Amino acid sequence: MGKKIILTGATGYVGEGVLLECLAHPQIDEVLVVGRKSCGVEHPKVKELLVKDFFSLDTVKDQLRGYDACCFCAGISSVGMNEADYTRITYDATIAFAKAVLAASPGIQFNYVSGAATDGSEQGRIMWARVKGRTENEIGRLGFKQSYNFRPGLIKPSPGQRNPKTWQRILVPIFAVLMPRSTCRMQEMGLAMINSVLKSYSKRTLEVKDIKILARG
């Protein structure tokens, strides 16, 4: 029997890439895409749940029941943001969503996309890294049967993706040649998330090298 996945961030770069891998994978039966606007993907595996925000999920909690894993790929850039505003979106909204899916599907696994150089100590100088680290740490305390932090660096887009920005299409392949150890392919990102559900992994926090290993199964 295949797995049922909840996915956020499908209108963004990483979320779209993970969605494409889920749709192509024979052991994923259903993907519930949760977001404020439609991802625009029509597929027999896809269900969509449009919500105002991740703080107001009580009225849709029944639609979050019966899922095996959540791939939380939603996120924003910290550029131009102060710490309070970035924390509300990156920490508060993520934790609210995590608590909602855990309450609805108590056996669910939670996969969180943070990023390379995330600061698990929560004490460093870089604001976004502290907030992401705090988010990772709190997810680990919520009581999921399993949770993973995915810390990709540069991600090369998959063929068929519509959401990468022009600079991502042009510059990421160039930097990937210069920094291969900091780069993975979007297919690897998606497969690593899927394999974490199907097979698990020995580490809770996955850096680029771990993502590549888990992608191979």
Question: Can you give a write-up of this model?
Answer:
With 217 residues, the chain is of the alpha/beta class. It has a single domain, classed as 3-Layer(aba) Sandwich (Rossmann fold), CATH 3.40.50. It is built from six helices and nine strands. It has helices at 13-24, 83-104, 127-141, 166-178, 186-198, 208-215; strands spanning 3-8, 28-35, 46-50, 69-72, 109-113, 146-150, 154-156, 183-185, 205-206. The strands form two sheets. Strands 3-2-1-4-5-6-9 form a seven-stranded parallel beta sheet, sandwiched between helices. Strand 1 (3-8), helix 1 (13-24) and strand 2 (28-35) form a beta-alpha-beta unit. Helix 1 (13-24) crosses helix 5 and helix 5 (186-198) crosses helix 6. The longest helix is centred in the middle third of the chain and has 22 residues, at 83-104. The protein is globular and about 45 Å long. The two termini are 19 Å apart. The mean pLDDT is 94.
